[in-house]
Amino acid sequence: MKGSLIILSFFVLGLILGLTRFLPTTLLEGNFSIYALYLLMFLVGIGIGTDRDSWKVIKQVNIKIILVPLSVIVGSLIGVSAVSVFLSNINFGEAMAVGAGFGYYSLSSVMITEFHGETLGVIALLSNIIREILTLLATPLFVRYFGKLAGIASGGATAMDTTMPIIVQYSGKEYAIIAVFSGIVLTILVPVIVPLILQFL
Amino acid sequence: MLLDIIIVLSIMILGIGIGLFIGNRPKIIKVVGVLTSFAIFLLLFLLGIGVGTNDKIIKNLHSIGLQALVLTLGAILGSLICAWATYKFFFKTGK
What we know:
The complex is a heterodimer of chains A (about 200) and B (about 100).
Chain A: H1 2-20, H2 25-29, H3 33-50, H4 52-59, H5 63-83, H6 92-99, H7 105-115, H8 118-146, H9 150-155, H10 164-171, H11 176-199
Helix pairs in contact in A: 5-6, 5-11, 6-8, 6-11, 7-8, 7-11, 8-10
Chain B: H1 2-22, H2 26-52, H3 55-59, H4 61-91
């Protein structure tokens, strides 16, 4: 949660500077956010590669556990497609790209901004932040009505870190490993699925 | 655009390879974590600037927020229903 606030404050700081045009023009004209994205992807890759605990978790997993992130992927994509009917400005594929962020708002919003457009990028940022916040707030309710995987499903990629404590609290310690596994799989898949969907737009 | 996506994914895979090679070195992992945070801060800062200077977005901010909320509710509800089915058929009986 603290991390989200810091990230959001950087966004807001940029927003204010942009609104007031209190900026050197080179910063506006330069297209160096794509290079920053390259750097981020490289670092994210190293992060995944060096994360021995994650690889261990993935190795000791049985078939059944794979169904959890799969449910999140299928459910999220069907869910956003269904509600996109009510949104006149957003088509089917754009909705799926936003949904495929699975709560990983920093990476999904940046990728969508670079590869599709700023408006959808902002929608992805807000939507995926709301996903994390709602998970933190409503997991007790979700677990009561949708079973013990509910918090993990709602949290998506965040189930491995920011929303994990609340998931464990309401589903039990035995669900911690499933939460971490599902979160890791989704985190790794976000940079693959989001561009894949955008490719077909 | 396809080229950009291929470049981005290749860079990530390169990173994973290097990460696997580096292995368990807490100091490097820590530095990479800090740098990752800074890269995210920078990108979101730049996105903020892009949004702030984009009148089309600023004028429609309330509608953008609403669209984001609707998409989130769809994504969460869809996930919850699928996870409920998975729990009922594969997890609950096993316990």
